[in-house]
Design brief:
The complex is a heterodimer. In chain A, 58% of the residues lie in helices and 14% in strands. Chain A is α/β, with parallel strands linked by helices. In chain A, helix 3 links the parallel strand 2 and strand 3. Chain B is an alpha+beta fold. The chains are: A alpha/beta, B alpha+beta. Chains A and B meet through helix 2, helix 5 and helix 6 of A and strand 5 and strand 8 of B. Chain B: It is a peripheral membrane protein.
Chain lengths: 296, 139
């Protein structure tokens, strides 16, 4: 983003052949070099953090695998055509983070929810959005301001299960009387260069078995309710890990592109600088020669 | 017929072991599981899980979660777990338990909301579990 601004400003300046221009160009080259230093180190930091996030994700996958036997519907926004399985009202948990400079990960989540709102309103269904992370909050406020009911921001990563439980508790309390399901929206990590904005639907368990017999140890209601809450927390935790991994991989890529663009910009500026310098020298030479010629 | 126990926390797979018997800290009390147990899902509170290997019991402190029993596989999903070191002194853990209980009583005076008390109650439960586990280890 910084580089884009610099690139726009550079060639627009009229090339007046004076010392000031030369100095200005030299300053701009120095500034761009500094920015490139920052972006390239941010890229390396992101690469290191990506490795950490991938390890955490691998652990979270093992923990979250118990939910795979449950029939929660999961879909990428791209494939989400049919929204008939959505209840009349659902709580949407949008998982983003507080930090930017990472490509379009947060916008992907926000845009997905905007598209979903449009599809659902055609079927007279509503949602309340719980935004996690400052970036998601500000974008969703602009896109679907009416549905945004709550935001959780300012939590430093790495995320842990306690934080996920806190978010889950908040989501479960939100519109508890009318919400038929909780939808978790996050970026699913595919590889270091790809991620999929995904929506996972979590519906409460309904006990459909026979009447209570001797083999039922615990009160079914308590267990099912507790299990549902744990299910929501697990999915949110898993989504957070996926999101954090996607964010770092996307940041790494964004910073690599920025570094590359910065390098190109420096090359261009150096060319302009050399041209200005040569023009100045030529002018000076002409002045000296014509001065000498005038004296003869 | 053998029984397998697996404890999984959000950070890692804490334990995978073959065992003869597992006792789970369920919210309705201790729950002993032997091989061939009927399928079951139960809520666990913060407490001590113990499992038997070659006749000797090993205690583990759990921070609360869920347990599932199916096909001789006990899967325990918990927010956290810790091993008990046999080096830890019983006086120390007992003092920690007394301190945590005193702290809870103090906090109770200022906060009446159940939800805000939860973390303090959990601390007491964990301290109690540690005490019990150490006591069990020392026999």
């Amino acid at each position: 983003m910084l580089l884009r601004a610099a690139a726009r400003a550079a060639p627009r300046r009229p090339l007046v052949r004076t010392f000031a221009t030369e100095k200005e160009i030299a300053m701009r080259i120095a500034a761009t070099k500094n920015i490139v230093k920052i972006t390239s180190s941010m890229k390396m930091v992101a690469a290191a953090k990506l490795r950490g996030e991938q390890n955490r994700l691998a652990a979270a996958t093992k923990f979250g695998s118990w939910t795979s036997v449950l029939e929660g519907k999961k879909s990428t926004f791209e494939d989400l055509e049919d929204v008939s399985y959505f209840p009349d009202h659902s709580v949407v948990v949008a998982l983003t983070s507080d930090k930017g400079l990472c490509g379009g990960v947060h916008s992907a989540v926000a845009r997905g929810i905007r598209g979903l709102t449009a599809k659902l309103s055609a079927e007279n269904k509503t949602i309340s959005v719980l935004a996690v992370g400052e970036k998601g909050r500000s974008q969703l406020r602009r896109m679907v301001g009416d549905s945004l009911s709550m935001a959780v921001v300012d939590i430093p990563p790495p995320y842990n299960f306690n934080y996920a439980s806190m978010v889950a508790e908040t989501a479960l309390e939100l519109d508890a009387d009318k919400a038929g399901a909780i939808q978790v929206v996050y970026n699913e990590f595919v590889s270091a260069i790809a991620y999929n904005p995904t929506i996972k639907s979590i519906e409460p368990f309904v006990y459909e078995g026979d009447d209570v017999t001797l083999t039922n140890y615990d009160a079914e209601d308590t267990v099912l309710k507790g299990l549902y809450e744990y299910y929501v927390a697990t999915e949110i935790f898993y989504g957070m890990m996926q999101g954090a991994t996607s964010e770092q991989s996307s940041r790494m890529q964004a910073m690599e592109n920025a570094t590359k663009n910065g390098g190109e910009l420096i090359d261009k500026l150096v060319l302009i600088y050399n041209r200005a310098r040569q023009a100045r020298i030529t002018t000076e030479l002409i002045e000296i020669i014509s001065g000498a010629a005038a004296l003869e | 017929m053998s029984l397998n126990v697996r404890i999984i926390t959000p950070e890692k797979v804490f334990l995978t072991s073959e065992t003869e018997q597992v006792v789970l800290p369920s919210i309705t009390g201790g729950l002993g599981i032997l091989a061939g147990h009927a399928p079951l899902v139960t809520i666990l509170e913060a407490g001590v899980l113990r499992y038997k290997n070659n006749g000797s019991w090993t205690p583990t402190v759990l921070y609360g979660g869920f347990a599932e029993v199916e096909n001789n596989q006990v899967t325990v999903l918990v927010n956290g777990a810790e091993e008990v070191a046999s080096s830890s002194s019983i006086e120390e853990v007992e003092k920690a338990l007394v301190d945590a209980t005193a702290n809870l009583e103090k906090v109770k005076e200022t906060i009446s909301e159940d939800r805000k008390l939860k973390p303090e109650i959990l601390k007491v439960q964990i301290a109690k579990a540690r005490f019990e586990a150490v006591k069990m280890l020392k026999g």
